[in-house]
Amino acid sequence: MNTILGNEIIKTSFKWRSYISFMAIAVVVPLVEIALKLQGEGMQRNVTRGLAQDFFLLGNITNGYFVSQMIMNALWIHVPFLVTLGAGDQLAGEATGGTFRLLLTRPASRSRILLAKYTTTLLYALALIAFMALLTVGLGVILFGTGDLLVPGRNLVVLPEHEALWRIAVAFALATWGMWTVASLAFLFSSLVENGIGPLVGTMAVIIVFYIVSNVPADLFTSVKPYLFTSYLNLWQKMFEDPVPWGDVLHSVFVLGAFSIGFYAVTWYIFLRKDILS
Amino acid sequence: MRTISLLLLLAALRAAPGQQLSGDDVLRKAEHNFEGLQDYTVTLDIVADIERMKVPPMHATMYFKQPEKVHFDAKGFVFLPREGMGVQFGQLTRRYAVDSMARETVDGALRYRLALHPRDEKALVRRVFMWVDGTRWTPERVLLPQPDGHAIEARFEYLRTGAFWLPASLVVSFSTAARDTTVQPQDNNPFTGVAPMMQRGAMRAGTVTVKYSDYHVNTGLPDALFQSDAEKHR
Question: How far is CA A68 from CA A193, A277, B155, in A?
Answer without folding.
Answer: 37, 46, 39
